[in-house]
Each structure stands twice: as C-alpha cells, then as structure tokens.
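Exercise 4. Each item below gives a protein and its sequence. For each, produce the structure-token representation.

Item: O-fucosyltransferase family protein (Spinacia oleracea).
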Amino acid sequence: MEVRSDGLQQVRYDKVPVGPMFERTRLKVWFIRVCSSILLWTCLVQLVAFGELWNPHFFAGFSHRFSYIATISPNVPPPPPLLPIRNYTSNGFLRVTCNGGLNQMRAAICDMVTVARFLNLTLVVPELDKTSFWADTSDFEDIFDVKHFIDSLRDEVRIIRRLPKKYNRKYGFQPLVMQPISWSNEKYYFEQVLPLFEKHKVLHFNKTDARLANNGLPLEFQRLRCRVNFQALKFTPKIEALGQKLIHLLQAKGPFVALHLRYEMDMLAFSGCNHGCTKEEAEELKQMRYAYPWWRDKEINSEEKRSQGLCPLTPEETALILQALRFDKNVQIYIASGEIYGSERRLAALRAAFPNTIKKDMLLDPDDLRQFRNHSSQMAALDFLVSVASNIFVPTYDGNMARLVEGHRRYLGFKKSILLYRKRVTGLVDLHLNGTLSWENFVDAVTEAHVNRSGQPILRKVIPDKPKEEDYFYANPQECLCQDLNCNAATNTSVLH
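Answer:
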C-alpha cells in the first residue's frame, strides 16, 4: 500500500502476497473447467451417436459437420458436401444376412438397397455370411467403408448401423425371418412382402442371393442397383491401399492379364468337375461334396458336365487356349483366385507356356498379407481390384466374381474381358490333344469362337419365365452403360501381343 501525492492510497498489485490458499483456488478453478469441457464433449458425442440411432434425419447433417470439424486439416481438402437426405416415412426396418462369397454378397447388397428404396424401408447395415465354406469372420465394416456406404445413399435410402434397442431379441422382440422368392420383381415385394411390415415392423431376410429379377424393373431401380455397386460399395482404406500397391507393382512391369482361374477345391467339389484329377483327388472332392448337405447335387457325371461347358477350365486347358488366342509368351499373368487344387503341380503347364505367371504372395511381403490371411472375402477384394484394373480379364468360369468384374469393366468403358466359350473350347482341346486337329486349325477355331466374346456392348439376353438362364444383370447392366439401349459403341483394343 502506498500513499499518492493527493493523499489517496494506491494498491501495488505486484506486491500483493500470493499464499497457498490462493494457489489452491486457482487450481480448483482450472480443474473445474477441464472437467466441464470433458463432460460437455462426452455428452455431445453421446448425443450424436444416439441421434443417429433414433432419429437419423435430424442428426445426420450435424454429425457430418461435427466429424468434419474434428478432422479438418489445412493440407487436406474438405470432403464433398453430402447429398440431401431423402425425406420419407419408413414402413419398417429391413435386416439382411447375405450368403455366399464376396461377390455374391456384393450383388445381394445392391439388390437389398433397391428393395428398401421402393418399399420405403429403413435398411440396417447388411450382415455377411460367416457359415459358408470359407468361414470368413469378416463383418461389413471389415470389407466396405460403412460411412461412405451410408452417406452416399442418404438421398435414396435411410441406412442405420443397428436396430433400435426396442427391436432387439434380448428385449423380447421377435422379427419375422424369411427368404424372399428368387428372381422376384417389384410387384412381388409390394404385394406380398410390404404388408408383412404392418404386423412385424422388422423383417430379416436370411437369404439374399438372386432375390431380385434381372429384367423388367423400372429404369430408376436398375440404375440404383448400379449406383450401389459402382459407387457406394467402396472397400476399406486398407484393402484399397494394398490393392493399389499390387496394381502399381504389376503396371511397373508392363501390361498384365488377370486370370480368374477358378480351379479351386470348393468349386470342383461343388460342381462335381474332376477332369484331369487323380482317382484319389476325385474321391476327395466327392467326399467334400457329401460333407455339405446344402450342396444339393451329389452324384455328378464330371465328363458330361464338362461337355456341356459347365466346368471351370483346368490350368492345362487354359494354357492351350491363351496360346491359341496368341497371347505373348512374356505377358504378365496375374492369377486372381485362391489356392489352386493340386497346387504348383497343376500350374506347371501354365507356367511353362507363360513364365511370368504371378500370384499375389509373389509380389507382396508376407507382412502385407498377414492381416488378410484367413479372411477369404478380403483376399477376394484384392483380386477384384486387380482384375478390374487389368489390361485384359480372362475368367475360366462364369461365377459371381467373373460376372461382377465383367460388369465393372463394361461400366469403365467396355474394357476387354475375354469370356471363354467353354462348351466349344473343351471339345477343341480334346480334338487337338488326340491328334485330330492340327495346331494351326486349333488356333483358327479358338480364335473364331471368341470373335464376339470380348465384353463389347451387347444387349442382355432376356428369357421370359426362365430367369436363371437369362444374362445376369451385374455382368451387363445395360441400363447404366448407354444413353440408349442399342449400345452400338465400338469394341475395345485387340488382345495383347
């Protein structure tokens, strides 16, 4: 305390003593502020989480802004603005469990989004099959970018990560579990499925393969299936990153062919095809077929199926066909498949014809693949990315992966996919091997058989009342490829030499 010249007292704050009591007060104030901030942010996060679950319309935009503020960096461009949410009154909740391998499940997800759209349902993020031959424990978010999936379709369908608690089984709620009829159009879903939601509120489709028709759907629904397939179903960052690494390693050495060599144990056992196998191997495949009760066909005539073009080509047959199609001996051939039955012994003829035959484990370090081991769907996702990016795609069987990759390559500008004419070429191979057909005539016959089988624009084949025999929508989604339905664009470049 000092006395000024005018007689008033002046306090010198720099000389006021600061004791232990004052320090404790400051510490207490600081502690209260920190705790209050933590509590406020915790409440905010919980509010957003519960909001997305119970009222996604109200909180979706707020949640996006919140995550954007939390992650924005001056060096990273802001994400594109979200599409406006489609405003509709939901008729109920749709749960789906997709069965089969990765690409069968992928097509099913596209179909189920479309069903949810035209029935005005709320779709729960799909569950993936964990009980099939592959026994893959991967969930949807282990394979696909779930946030991108939800956000990119918000203007079409309301998608939530999980059912509200009141609809969980542990609270006593029993959803209706059913399998929709295969190859059904929107009339079936409107007339037979939609009324079920009035009573049950939640339907669980426990089988989703081929439950929507190839043809006859309104154009807007066909294009929605494409939008889900080509835009919304994006793989997780770790899958995308390793897939791009594989692609860059291949491209650095020149053009490459992705060969989907479907000569795997499960395919051979399921189809009953054992051409080229030993007696012991044929018996092993048969025993495996009987071990799976849901594989309905048990006694199968392998040679009869092969003559009908219903068997995957063997590695030896494939080598001859690629040579006849004049593939350069030194071209890179990436084998996009799992373990080949018979392993390296069955690959010997292919490697002799094409020394640059490569598998993913020959390109990547073991550490790169370790996280994907025992997850067949994630490994298949890597092969899918490489196959779509390849200069030429050659499937030896028209399974789900072959057809979906073919469709993606059509979507990307009708990139060349050589669709082997198995029924024709197996007979030609036999004639050549028994000496009836010379190599020159064999080459001419194989080339002629594939003149119009390179993935060029073509209308999808429609067979009324026989949907299983029609061309598959996802192999040739013509409604999404052409401005008109004539698809008269020119075909792509010729085979690599």
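Check: The longest strand covers residues 93-98.
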